[in-house]
Design brief:
The chain is an all-alpha fold and 197 residues long. The protein has one domain: de novo design (two linked rop proteins). The protein contains 8 helices and no strands. Helix 2 packs antiparallel against helix 3, helix 2 packs antiparallel against helix 6 and helix 3 runs antiparallel to helix 4. It is elongated and about 85 Å long. The relative contact order is 0.16.
Length: 197
């Protein structure tokens, strides 16, 4: 009887070591870390926006509609509770991604409009905030790419045999990716009209 238990225990260890369970855990944690980094960069951007808006408000005759769009887009983007569990809900992740895209669009419009205000362009404080925002946008792009790559690796791994059996038994499912709602619209450069004041 004791020999049978030892044999079963050895067989169980051999099966579990080849089933990919530990690798699934490792990839899942890597994905959570990549998501946390992306959220950190999104939060950094959200924190910069009030400073940018306040600096721009100081410029006489600045387009109020543009500022309002940025403030509203920021409010919508930060209203979504960005938790680690968000990646497990494709609809919630899509909503988050859409809100962040709207914020990016509003910020792009703001920066285009700023070009027609020489005082703002010469304002060292604004230029510093703009450089920080541009750096943050780059960090967001890098963090998103890292997350996308990590999710792709995880999804591929849990679909391969024999890990797919382990994933099925333990309830590990493929994770949703960041998606772009209207890819053609983002590839179109924003219209610049310097005649407006």
């Amino acid at each position: 009887m004791k020999s049978l238990r030892l044999l079963l225990a050895a067989a169980l260890v051999a099966v579990l070591s080849g089933c990919g369970y530990n690798e699934i855990q490792s990839r899942d944690e890597g994905m959570k870390a990549a998501w946390a980094e992306a959220l950190s960069q999104y939060q950094r951007r959200a924190d910069l926006i009030p400073n940018i808006v306040n600096t721009v408000k100081g410029e006489a005759n600045f387009e109020q509609e543009t500022l309002t769009r940025v403030v509203e887009a920021r409010a919508r983007a930060t209203a979504i509770q960005a938790t680690p569990e968000l990646v497990d809900d494709p609809a919630a992740l899509q909503k988050f991604s859409q809100a962040q895209g709207e914020l990016s669009s509003a910020l792009s419009r703001l920066l285009v409009v700023v070009e027609s205000y020489p005082n703002l362009k010469a304002n060292a404080g604004f230029q510093d905030l703009r450089a920080q925002l541009e750096g943050t946008e780059n960090r967001i792009g890098i963090a998103r790419k890292r997350y996308i790559d990590t999710v792709a690796g995880y999804n591929t791994f849990v679909r391969q045999f024999p890990q797919n059996l382990t994933a099925m038994i333990f309830g590990y499912k493929e994770k949703a990716q960041f998606t772009v709602e209207n890819e053609a619209a983002i590839q179109k450069a924003p219209a610049v009209d310097f005649g407006k004041k």
